[in-house]
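Possible race condition, two jobs.
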Amino acid sequence: MRLFSFLGLFLGSAAFVQNAVASPVEGETGEPVVLAVAAFPEDNAFGHVVNGERNKIFLSIENKSARNVTLKNIAGSFHIPESNRLVKNTSALSYGIPLLEGASMQLPYTFHSEFKPGDYRLNIWLEHVVDGETYRVTAYDSIVAVVEPAGSWIDLKLWTTYLIVTGLLGALSFYVYTTLFPQQKKRKTSAVSAPVGTVTATGAGGYQEEWIPEHHLKKATKKSKASGVATSGDETSGVESGTEGRRRKGKK
């Protein structure tokens, strides 16, 4: 009996092996076996997703099937970890690259994030096409932390924004000040032009007659005549009369 038991076990094992060899490899007749694994670069070991920046992740892809496939696109989505509720889909990046049988490659995928800082479930997948059929393979499904960008004193973009805003506020303040508090205009005094021509000086003070109005000159002449002021002609006649008197005394 033991011989028959041993013989039956041997025959059963042989039949199992024969069926396993005869049956096709899983996925050869249906969905081809394509492996995809995504990982963040070495400078982002903790897998932080920074708001407002281009976040990059790399996908290692390998075609394990005996058929050639075409990589269609890579896309992803953010979900609430507790409820798995969809927050937002990331933009799909099209490739259209053929992946031959047994070939492997690494492709980058970049996406943006504008979410409230916190923990989210990030799902990234790869779509490929075989014989007109599209299949999806999950490459990454894990919890990530969405954080704000770290501030820096040498951030040129931040300083440029501050300068532009400061300039606009300064221009607006100056406009409001000049509108509400207008400045009084200063009166301009016209410069006195010097007289043109030859300047003559008369009298003991050496004043310039060109600066004296004509009617004042006429009044001054009349007053001098009325007071009996001797003119240059009278002074000359007096000198001559004095000389004649001296001559007469000499003759005597």
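Job #2 (started ~2 s after job #1):
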Amino acid sequence: MYSGAVARMKDPSIRTLIIERAAHMLRTREPITLRSLVSQTCVSTMAVYTYFGGMDGVWKALRQEGFTRLTDRFALVRESADPVHDLTALVAAYIGNAIDHPDLYRIMFDETLDLEDHQAADAALAYLVRAARRGRDAGRFRGDADPRRLAAQSWVIGHGLVSLVTGGCLPRRTLDDGAAMLTALFIGAGDGPDGCRASVEEGWKHLSIPREGVPDGSR
């Protein structure tokens, strides 16, 4: 009978714990060392080597995790018969993901950190590009509308709003302006005003904002 030790399976929750701890420390500008990273957690320094191969692996995993969670969030947006609704819903999902994971969100765009998969950002953008292309092919946008450009402009609206809100520069209620911004963008790209407003209104319902964790900005 084989009596050797059975290899212990890695616990994904430990990997997530270390990543989220590192992301929080970066955002709060705490000095990060191997020991400080695992302090106040239930894991030892050995866990960093087990799950990441060392601190260099942690840095690479940080940005990657942000984009992984974003694409997972995008994948939850089911494609409908209305591409303008879908493009709006994706922007709403982008904002929701940033609010749910504010520490990782800030690190996603820190180019001083490497990425395990350098195509991660393009993979996320591809969801918006597909919706924009479907909108053009369906006649909602002009035939000369560039799907990638329209997708990028949609992303910029969501990114700008949620960055300012999560950073405490603008009140949470400012996110409500996103629907009007997208409507203006899509009408400018050729969509009819009435149909556009209806599609955006429905797509924007995918945005669910928690009452805690995002500054109200009463100033």
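The chain has two domains: 10-53, 62-206.
Logs attached separately.
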